[in-house]
């Protein structure tokens, strides 16, 4: 590189011999991973196709910051703003939060070319600065000494004539990422190098850079690490905690058996089992000489007070892993099971080499995280309509898979009508067979007996209409994807799965009470409806959400805002749980009591949820293996007909399905295996290339 730079100096000197003095600052403007004479053209103006990137150096080397964090507590008198200020402290400390360079790996290179001695005044000095005040406050510049140390350069530091003769080796990083809104930063920074003599500016040069975006993983990228929540250590959980511990151990073994070398990380300081929802694994990267220079960045959900998200900052940061948060009081649609990534594609002349983000939206509950994703620009998010879903997450009905085809991927989509056809066919063979084949296990939180037969299931209120409504809503979202990404019919595969809604409810759990069955039987709805049989801890005339059993929250409850009146969750932990009771006069401010939500429940009904575990709400472990929830469907001729249907659907695209029981830990609480786990994936994509 030194020979290239020397050649650049000679070339520039020859072409501008008439100029008495000239300085040149270079960055990796052409994005090939090195700084040389090929970066001369266009360096002073950043465009989507030309211009250098630099990185937010927001890891936590030796966990200097993480070790000092404590859980914030909302004190009497704290308002929303004062509490958010406490949570902001989680991200305030990182490797770039002061002026010490702790991790030179993530410096983007800058070079100031040597100034020929014959042109250099003896009293010459030089400065380097970021020209914009906002960008200057968020950008750090360092200079490398002859001994190899890096020292911080502020806007007033002067370089001597002796230093200018040999040139300068510099590096630049950022204190933060791209942020939305009028007070945010778009990541642009222009760096000016100026030479002075006799108190006057004699020459200057500018190079334009931009902070690299925070990107999310898609399923074509290979899994490198998995995450799950361990058995809660706090007392009082009983068999519910035991069940979660068994789930975590089983998941860890399956991941290892699939060939994932890094051991599964198990969260142990949160009692929340919805590991998919409180963070999204992402990354940021810039071109390097040997390929992309990558920093993993974990994105906390925009749900202040959610303890699992706090754990991301306390436990997972390192010299190669950072974390970001876009603080707010987001609801269920800000849970990050509602964030998926469409794999790379091109559409309408625009290329998306890193894919596009995708979130479920609703007029009455639009995710705050969309603002943050929009600000990154590169993965322009697609907004789907999940207003018809009880939980409201896109992972409830679709999933992208790697595939050996022109696109490199296919879209797996839930098929409620096919699920209904399977149940009808099974009932024709033997309608007296149990609809649910799950046996009782000693670690089950409840001693449940499911007595409904296939014939009983087909008598569920409005069962056919529920499937038809779900299918219509799915088709509406597929139309959005057809418009947004050019989705074709041949890109779509269907996976059978039956749905229900809040009024019809689910299977009935009959549980023994007392010392024997003869002492009585208590009827509990595993997925309670809103009719007279629903369990109530609110006064009549108000409508409860799904019940909390033995301290475990439903996925929807876990995602509710913590700042609202009658919130299910306290701000000091996960264990303080109380019911929401919506006032009949419509004056309650809780989001679950919003008139639009209540109107949907009364007039439409009926937000959809899975009756049996959903096949597509599964984990893509490898390019040929997924992990799905055990179906526990009806057994006909010794075969679980739903499990067989899920296997067959994935086999058609070259995937083997492994099954794991999540009936009590996740399914009955609104989610599946995907909701209860997380992954990070390889991140070597050159996303800057069109």
Automatic annotation (TrEMBL):
Q: Which segments constitute the Protein-arginine deiminase C-terminal domain?
A: 203-499, 600-688
Q: Where is this region: Disordered?
A: 527-549
Keyword Signal carried by entry: yes
Its keywords, alphabetically, are: Signal
**One of this protein's Pfam families, by short name?**
PAD
Write out the GO cellular component annotations.
Answer: cytoplasm
Molecular function terms, GO-annotated: calcium ion binding; protein-arginine deiminase activity
Stretch forming the signal peptide? 1-20
The record's annotation in SUPFAM superfamilies points to: Pentein (SSF55909), Peptidylarginine deiminase Pad4, middle domain (SSF110083)
Task: List the InterPro entries.
Answer: PAD (IPR004303), PAD_C (IPR013530), PAD_central_sf (IPR036556)
Q: Does the keyword Signal belong to this entry?
A: yes
Q: What is this protein called?
A: Protein-arginine deiminase C-terminal domain-containing protein
């Amino acid at each position: 590189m030194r020979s290239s730079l020397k050649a650049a100096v000679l070339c520039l000197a020859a072409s501008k011999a008439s100029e008495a003095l000239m300085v040149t600052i270079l960055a990796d403007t052409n994005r090939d991973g090195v700084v040389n004479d090929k970066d001369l053209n266009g360096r002073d103006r950043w465009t989507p196709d030309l211009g250098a990137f630099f990185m937010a150096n927001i890891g936590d080397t030796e966990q200097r910051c993480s070790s000092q964090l404590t859980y914030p507590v909302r004190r009497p008198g704290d308002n929303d703003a004062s509490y958010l200020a406490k949570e902001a402290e989680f991200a305030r400390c990182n490797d770039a939060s002061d002026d010490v360079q702790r991790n030179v790996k993530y410096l983007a290179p800058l070079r100031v070319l040597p100034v020929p001695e014959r042109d250099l005044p003896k009293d010459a000095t030089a400065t380097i600065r970021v020209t914009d005040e906002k960008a200057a406050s968020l950008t750090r510049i360092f200079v490398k000494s002859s001994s190899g140390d890096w020292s911080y350069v502020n806007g007033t530091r002067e370089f001597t004539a002796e230093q200018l003769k040999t040139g300068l080796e510099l590096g630049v990083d950022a204190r933060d990422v791209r942020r939305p809104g009028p007070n945010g930063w778009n990541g642009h920074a222009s760096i000016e190098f100026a030479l002075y003599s006799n108190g006057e500016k004699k020459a200057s040069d500018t190079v334009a850079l931009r902070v690299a975006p925070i990107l999310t993983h898609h399923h074509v990228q290979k899994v490198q690490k998995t995450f799950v929540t361990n058995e809660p250590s706090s007392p009082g959980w009983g068999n519910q905690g035991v069940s979660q511990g068994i789930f975590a151990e089983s998941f860890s073994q399956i991941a290892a058996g699939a060939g994932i070398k890094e051991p599964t990380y198990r969260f142990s300081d949160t009692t929340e089992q919805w590991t998919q929802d409180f963070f999204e694994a992402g990354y940021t990267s810039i071109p390097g000489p040997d390929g992309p220079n990558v920093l993993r960045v974990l994105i906390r959900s925009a749900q202040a007070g959610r303890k699992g998200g706090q754990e991301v900052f306390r436990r997972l940061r390192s010299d190669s892993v950072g974390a970001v948060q876009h603080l707010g009081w987001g609801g269920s649609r800000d849970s990050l099971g509602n964030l998926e990534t469409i794999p790379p594609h091109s559409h309408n002349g625009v290329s998306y080499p890193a894919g596009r983000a995708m979130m479920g939206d609703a007029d009455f509950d639009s995710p705050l995280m969309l603002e943050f994703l929009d600000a990154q620009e590169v993965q322009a998010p697609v907004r789907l309509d999940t207003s018809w879903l009880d939980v409201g997450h896109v992972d409830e009905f679709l999933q992208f898979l790697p595939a050996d085809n022109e696109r490199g991927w296919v879209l797996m989509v839930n098929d409620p009508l096919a699920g209904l056809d399977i149940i009808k066919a099974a009932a024709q063979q033997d309608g007296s067979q149990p609809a649910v084949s799950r046996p009782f296990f000693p670690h089950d939180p409840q001693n449940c007996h499911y007595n409904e037969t296939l014939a009983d299931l087909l008598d569920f209120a409005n069962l056919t209409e529920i499937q038809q409504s779900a299918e219509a809503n799915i088709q509406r979202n597929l139309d959005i994807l057809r418009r947004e990404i050019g989705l074709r019919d041949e890109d779509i595969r269907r996976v059978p799965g039956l749905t229900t809604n809040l009024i019809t409810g689910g299977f009935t759990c009959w549980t023994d009470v007392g010392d024997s069955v003869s002492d009585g039987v208590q009827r509990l709805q595993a997925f309670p409806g809103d009719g007279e049989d629903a369990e109530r801890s609110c006064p009549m005339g108000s409508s409860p959400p799904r019940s909390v059993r033995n301290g475990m929250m439903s996925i929807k409850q876990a995602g509710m805002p913590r700042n609202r009146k009658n919130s299910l969750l306290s701000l000091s932990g996960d264990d303080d749980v109380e019911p929401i009771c919506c006032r009949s006069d419509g004056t309650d401010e809780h989001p679950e009591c919003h008139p639009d939500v209540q109107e949907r429940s009364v007039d439409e009904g009926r937000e959809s949820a899975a009756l049996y575990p959903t096949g597509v709400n599964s984990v893509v472990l490898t390019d040929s293996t997924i992990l799905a929830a055990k179906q526990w469907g009806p057994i006909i001729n010794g075969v679980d007909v739903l499990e067989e249907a899920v296997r067959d659907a994935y086999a058609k695209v070259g995937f083997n399905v492994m099954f794991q029981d999540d009936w009590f830990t996740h399914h009955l609480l609104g989610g599946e295996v995907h909701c209860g786990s997380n992954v990070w994936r390889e991140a070597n994509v050159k996303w800057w290339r069109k």
